[in-house]
Amino acid sequence: MQMTGGEAVVHSLAVHNVDTVFGIPGAHTLALYDALLDAGSIRHIVARHEQGAAFMADGYARASGRVGVCLCTSGPAVLNAVTSLGTAYCDSSPVLCIASEIPSEMIGKEKGFIHECRDQLACLRPVTTWCHLAGEVASIPERMQEAFLKMQEGRPRPAALEIPCDILDASDSVEIPEPATWVRRQPSSESIDKAVQLLSQSRRPVIWAGGGVISSGASSELQEMAEHMQAPVFTTVLGRGAIAGDHPLSAGSAMIHPAAREFVAGCDVMLAVGTRFTEEEAIGWTLRLPDTLIHVDIDSQEMGRNYLPTVAVVGDARESLRQLNEGLGATHAKEVEARDGEVAQLRQQIIDDCRQIAPQGVQLVETLQSALPREAIIVSDLTLAAYWCRRLLDVYEPRTNIYPWGFCTLGFGVSAGIGAKAARPDCPVVVISGDGGFLFNCQELATAVQFELPIVILLFNNNSYGVLKPQQQVRYGRTLGVDLVNPDFVALAESFGCQGQRVTSLGQLGPAVSRALESDRTWVIEVTCDVPLQIMEPGPRSLHAAL
Predict the structure, then answer these.
(1) Of 520, 468, 457, 464, residue with least CA distance to 492
(2) Can you tell me whether residue 179 is helix, strand or coil?
């Protein structure tokens, strides 16, 4: 079939069942945008900044489990999206960036073409698992198929396809292949047998569930394992929702708390599924794990990178857990003592400790827990309120916790929340942001209003970079660059066509959230009451004591 390069891109997206793309048109992508006009099945959501567009694609991917797609023109637009792609890369989120390039014959010659970047593709390599240039119209569908395959067959990470503007404009005979298909990576039977043997002999097993459980859709298998073994389940920040927060065996995401660390050290076997033992989760790799460690992960390169496993099970989390459950069902005949009482006692111990040291932090979490419906999607930016919630706020379903964890990217929340709402219009979306991070991408409120994607933003305003200010105070006795002069956030929200409200106490916050969730508008709720430093991680805990 004869078609332009732009049409080849759009047809390839359609065959992969893409229904939403985020982007901003540019001079070099006009052929692509013209082709989108004829694609009735694909909705284009125009952002106000390419960083916002790529964050939206990331939020869409995390909330839906599908590939999120962002479109960028050449040069500065691509570089604007790099931060967002880095966030998706660190958190294993499948985002496809389709970017234009200057005309083919001009690439790398530095002749002064508009939007010229000396090596644009090289800028994308560090933040993608796959990136290539399509140098011919006929090659676009094959490259697109490769990109989708790479994002789905292993660890889900971003991909980028670069297409020169003359190729997008040109026409050729094109064949659109079938969509990329992938098979779940199977673990070796030897590793499964060894893991089953160790688990069947254990008396005090514990499970640590990471984002890989969410990515593979393995929550049912995880719960079956936990109940069969009577194994308490801790989650990482990205693994929250892998098991319902109110399940009797859910120990929460507070493994870094001193009481939880002592509890874990007293277990005899850990089954770690879909987690990379990252620096902050493992407290600089000082976290003491049980002597026997079974590590399940789809990425063989993660085995032994931070902790040496007794048994390494390389495979898809869902398939690996399914086979482990089958093996245990056949061999695990001994009686198992219920441990839900232990878990309840541990969780109460953690809450009591937090309440004693920083009662307002616990009150904040309890206020939100009461106000938020069970199916709410929580999207976090980097702010003290989110730091409390990432450890103590229960979530109940997979893909309802969206957090910029690995790259620790300020300004993520608003845009990712819009993307999540585009993916899951049936679910309320609540963004937890600070005043500093909100102003990174607050212009995307216009996108939420234009495309009727109502989200509720809880904007905690302390007129500062509140995470950094106390660190400077304690370490140096003085501060610089952390105090902020802010706009009237309620008036700012209303100027975009959103609803704005200011609350000055946690007692006012719960009713305000409930009211906002009942409406069909985007809300910005400015919260001006103090939020204390979180006390889970050793660093902030000691900092809190020093203030």
Answers:
(1) 457
(2) coil
381 pLDDT more than 90: yes
At 283, which amino acid appears? I
DSSP 434-465: EHHHHTTSGGGHHHHHHTT---EEEEE--SB-
> 368: which 2 tokens?
């939100």
Average pLDDT over residues 338-347: 96
- For residue 62 the two structure tokens come to 């995390």
> How far is 176 from 9, CA to CA, in rounded Å?
10
CATH classification number, 189-343, choose in 3.10.20.30, 3.40.50.300, 3.40.50.620, 3.40.50.1220: 3.40.50.1220
| Residue 260 banded pLDDT, cuts 50, 70, 90 | very high
Tell me which residue of 387, 402, 388, 396 sits closest to 351, measured CA to CA. 388
- Of 28, 27, 29, 72, the C-alpha closest to 51 is 72
The rounded distance, in Å, linking the Cα atoms of 388 and 544 is 13
Tokens at 107, concatenated: 């690439």
Q: Does domain 2-173 fall into CATH 1.20.1440.60?
A: no
358-546 has which fold?
Rossmann fold (3.40.50)
Q: Which helix or strand (DSSP H or E) is residue 245 part of?
A: none
In the chain, residues under CATH classification 3.40.50.1220 are 189-343
pLDDT at 9 over 90: yes
Q: In whole angstroms, how far apart are CA 239 and each of 103, 396, 427?
A: 43, 11, 19
Query: Residue 9 and residue 170: Cα distance in Å, rounded?
Result: 12
CB atoms within 10 A of CB 507: 11
Return left, alpha or beta for 195; rule: phi > 0 is left, psi -120 to 50 is alpha, else beta: alpha
Rounded to the nearest 5°, which phi and psi values hold at 390? -65, -20
Q: Are 29 and 36 in contact (CB under 8 A)?
A: no
Average pLDDT over residues 503-508: 96
Q: What is the mean pLDDT of the chain?
A: 95
pTM score: 0.97
How many residues are listed for the chain in this entry?
Answer: 547
Q: What is the pLDDT of residue 252?
A: 97
